[in-house]
Amino acid sequence: MNWIFLILEIFGYIFIGIGSFFLLLASIGLLRMPDVYNRMQTATKATTLGALSVLFGIGLLDLNWMPKSLVIALFILLTAPVGASALARASYKAGIALWKGSVVDKYKEEKEEE
Amino acid sequence: MDLFTLVSLILIIAMLIAAVVAAEIKDLLSAAIAMGIVSLIVSILFYILQAPDVAITEASIGAGLSLAIMIFAIKHTERWEK
Amino acid sequence: MIPYYYLASVALIVIGIYIVIAKKNLIKIIIGLDMMDTGVNLLLISIGYVKGGTAPIENGNYTLYVDPIPQALVLTAIVIGVSVMALALSIVIGLYKNTGSLELDEIRRERK
Amino acid sequence: MKRILGGVIAVLIFIVLALAFVHIPFGNIDLAEYHYYNPVDNEHTQDSVPQHYLDEGKKETGSTNIVTAVVVDYRGFDTLGEVTVLFLASTGVGSIMYIFEKEKRRKVRRANAVVETASKLLFGFIILFGAYIFVHGHLTPGGGFPGGAVIASSFLLLYLAYPRFHAEHKNLNIAESLAGLTFVGVGILGLFLAGYFLYNFLPFGLPTYLFSAGVIPVIYVAVGVKVGSELTGIVDAMMGVRE
Prior knowledge:
The structure holds 4 protein chains of 4 kinds. By secondary structure, chain A is mainly α. Chain A has one domain (2-113). Chain A has helices at residues 2-32, 36-61, 66-93, 106-113. By secondary structure, chain C is mainly alpha-helical. Helices cover 72% and strands 0% of the residues of chain C. Chain C has a single domain, classed as Helix Hairpins. Chain C is elongated, with a radius of gyration of 19 Å. Chain D has helices spanning 2-21, 49-61, 66-74, 76-100, 113-135, 144-161, 169-194, 216-239, and strands spanning 36-38, 43-45. A two-stranded antiparallel ribbon of chain D has the order 1-2. Chain D starts with a helix and ends with a helix. Chains in contact: A-D, B-C, B-D, C-D. The B-D interface holds B 52-53, 55-57, 60-61, 64-65, 68-69, 72-73, 76 and D 65, 67-68, 133, 141-143, 145-146, 149-150, 152-153, 156, 231, 234-235, 238-240.
């Protein structure tokens, strides 16, 4: 039954490669994006996917690590969006303006409706 | 130059840049955050130097609690250095 | 070979000393003291490092370990450092509430 | 003027310290090569202190993690002193901040609903992680000091998410006093049972199991609770929110 582990290892490396690619995209986006909110969006969305993929790949490489890496993935899934939303809200309240090309400002609309 | 030296040198250069920023910037909030970055990089260096106990302690205290305490203190006083 | 870890931690200590000497803002001075603390911790840990050694947790496979004594020293020193820093910051907040300033010159002028 | 003076002094100190430390070899130390001078017998013994801890630590204390063995067992008295310093600093912060708390009330602004829900969900897990760190202090990296810091950071999360949240000082005091009493009580029990303060009088058990290493887990749990409650008290005092 050695070939099952070989296939698992290959899939694990494929997942790690996908994850590293998304992390690379996230860091390029961090440099390219024009304002805080766009940067935060790349830094959270792409990083969450990349980190989850890398963790799943590591779990496939050695099946003993699978529960641990799944738990770590669950906590990244729980904490990263919350932190990003808190940061975005704080920077909006601190008065950082949107980029001039932005067209949607849901937060402001909601404020005006109240 | 092996991997140990390379990673250590990159981290040390980033740490010293953050330390100089914390020394020279006029905004005390930015200085406190730069100090947190120094603590975080030092905790990674502790991990590289095979001290995981100290690395956990430094990451949770130096980069978490001490930064929060300093930000509370800045909130009670004023933000800009004259 | 240059021991760059020692030089980096000495540089941290020296930047802390420079802040304490040259700056007049009290919170900046406390940041400098914290930086000196961090530098001394890094110096102690890097002196205890042994090339090729692992962390001093015995799991049967390794025989070469790093020095455990500096790690035990630094482990407690970090916690003491943050609590002493909080004490110093609370004293600074007290000074600010009484004199209305964080700069050493103005506080000294206030006393006269 | 002061900046130039400070810069010159800093460069001079850097040169002196660098010249002093450049002669210490980095990473090439053989721990068995240190010769320990024994003043009682007036001779140099072959066994150095760190090598002795590494060789005999598992046998003498039962702890797998040698750093924990040094912190709690070989230098347990030192740890008691450190915890006392921490207690004094926490008391000082509380008593200084108490003077100003009546004057200025912080403007309370509600946090985001996302943050509130997530912090309610994560608070228990973070407490559990801190407890895991200090219960397994003798087996894995970690111990009482980082575990207490993680617990205090979980309370910091609650403080940030709920501005009206306020930890009861009475409960914090009770937890801290009980932890301190446990530490000192275990030490005095060792004094009665074996003749040494902080003697490791419980059976060691099998190494790498949770219930091993005698009194080390008991003391580390006490240290963890004490550090956690004290750092929570410091955060509470520095936050300065009263209703």
